[in-house]
Amino acid sequence: MTYPNRSARGARGAATARITAIDGVNLDVLGGETLAVVGESGAGKSTLAQAMVGLTRPDAGSVRFDGAELVGLQGREWRAVRRRIQLVAQNPLLALSPRRRIVAQISEPLQVHTRLNRARRTELVAAMIAAVGLRAEVLDRLPHEISVGEAQLAVLARALILEPSLILFDEPTSALDVSVQAGVLNLLRRLKADNELTYLFITHDLGVALHLADRIAVMRHGRIVEQQPAAALFTAPRHPYTRSLLRSSLVV
Prior knowledge:
This protein is of the alpha/beta class. 40% of the residues lie in helices and 17% in strands. It contains ten helices and ten strands. The chain has helices at residues 45-52, 75-82, 92-95, 102-113, 118-132, 148-160, 178-195, 206-212, 230-235, 240-248; strands spanning 2-4, 18-20, 34-38, 64-65, 68-69, 85-88, 166-170, 198-203, 215-220, 223-229. It has a six-stranded mixed beta sheet with strand order 6-7-8-3-9-10, with helices on both faces. The chain has a two-stranded antiparallel ribbon with strand order 1-2. Strands 4-5 form a two-stranded antiparallel ribbon. β9 (215-220) and β10 form a beta hairpin. The longest helix is centred in the last third of the chain and has 18 residues, at 178-195.
């Protein structure tokens, strides 16, 4: 997957080169596991997640979910798939509409994807905020009236409300304080176990990956350079880049 290089332009202002964001990635996410994708900023991790949920279209290659090809889906076809795949973005305040109350934003997927009446939607929202530990009084507030941690829980509740099979997390704890981050990670582990979920977790934090993941894939310059079970990667890294990441990390 490539993008135009906006800094390299010809005489008429057109981009003259392209930047490779993802190249030759071959990655499987197994049902019921948590796969962490780690690497430095600019490695292509977020682009990978966006390609998986159809926000960015690959130049070539295939993205498959339960055997079905996702590249090229449009309109109603993607709408059916998106009920089963959800993306939790890095900045929760940007992921929420600033003009809509939290309750409306958590309920919106139910309005779009189901025919449930308002009373049933209200019941499901109440159950979901209890599951993620979000205070009921937050529901009537706007995003700027709540904390970043509460906003992240609201985004998580919205992603879970449709009971998806796969959730992609793009640096979901990077904007949180350390104490809040630990609580969110423990919550994600509990929700995964209780609901038999599958996670793809993108992070630059090796400590987060070790805490949460069953397997870890290391990404560099748009390529996966190593994949191992989490414990094995930390004890016996194979690739020089992985070893350099571990040396530069506080994780031992």
